[in-house]
Design goal:
The structure holds two protein chains of two kinds.
Chain A lengths: L3 E4 L2 E4 L5 E7 L5 E7 L6 E8 L2 E4 L6 E3 L9 E3 L8 E8 L7 E2 L3 E5 L1
Parallel strand pairs in A: 2-11
Antiparallel strand pairs in A: 1-3, 3-8, 4-5, 4-9, 5-6, 7-8, 9-10, 9-11
Chain B lengths: L3 E3 L4 E4 L4 E7 L6 E7 L6 E6 L3 E5 L2 E6 L4 E6 L8 E8 L6 E2 L3 E6 L1
Parallel strand pairs in B: 2-11
Antiparallel strand pairs in B: 1-3, 3-8, 4-5, 4-9, 6-7, 7-8, 9-10, 9-11
Classes of the chains: A mainly beta, B mainly beta.
Chain lengths: ~110, ~110
């Protein structure tokens, strides 16, 4: 079945540590996105990529980095520069155009 | 600042009733409108998309769009306890970005 796979489901980060969240899709979608969700708030865009080897900052990119070396993969690194990383991270994809998103199951990141 | 506003709720309706969820947006140039359902602890799931003024029906769900009033709504007929979730309104002003509202929590009482 086609879909988006995010891993791990839960992740714990120590202070000063970089962690990488995985996102893989087999939907043949061109565009991929990373969102962050905090309790009581809407989804906020971190980074997005329209094609391989190209990506753009979203509204809250500081402290995060991404790569898009393959169409299927769009990993997100949460760096030590991100001071408040505890949140639910969602990866999404869609075809080009104005359709809706398909979301992965999410990664819940907690700072310990 | 482009915004999407929703009443946070909770909205409580009895089983079998019609649930009405509302959303307003600030960017008049918005072109695409979506409703996502998100169960507690899960990721959002697309349930409706609408692109032109009027109503769009899909099963028990009806999306309504009024661009002049910058208003989009979702009606859920014959509400079931399994419909209890947070409903996210999302608006795309064009290009590759989408702006999400904070969501309305819906409780359907059996």
């Amino acid at each position: 079945d086609g879909g988006i796979t995010q891993s791990p489901k839960y992740l714990f980060r120590k202070e000063g540590q970089n962690v990488t969240l995985s996102c893989e899709q087999n939907l043949n979608h061109d565009a991929m996105y990373w969102y962050r969700q905090d309790p009581g708030q809407g989804l906020r865009l971190i980074y997005y990529s329209q094609i391989v080897n190209d990506f753009q900052k979203g509204d809250i990119a500081e402290g995060y980095s991404v790569s898009r070396e393959k169409k299927e993969s769009f990993p997100l690194t949460v760096t030590s520069a991100q001071k408040n990383p505890t949140a639910f991270y969602l990866c999404a994809s869609r075809t080009q155009g104005n359709g809706g998103y398909t979301f992965g199951s999410g990664t819940r990141l907690t700072v310990v | 600042q482009k915004e999407v506003e929703q009443n946070s709720g909770p909205l409580s309706v009895p089983e079998g009733a019609i649930a009405s969820l509302n959303c307003t947006y600030s960017d008049r140039g918005s072109q695409s409108f979506f409703w996502y359902r998100q169960y507690s602890g899960k990721s959002p799931e697309l349930i409706m998309s609408i692109y032109s003024n009027g109503d769009k029906e899909d099963g028990r769900f009806t999306a309504q769009l009024n661009k002049a009033s910058q208003y989009v709504s979702l009606l859920i007929r014959d509400s079931q306890p399994s419909d209890s979730a947070t409903y996210l309104c999302a608006v795309s002003p064009g290009g590759f970005k989408t702006i999400f509202g904070a969501g309305t929590r819906l409780f359907v009482k059996a």
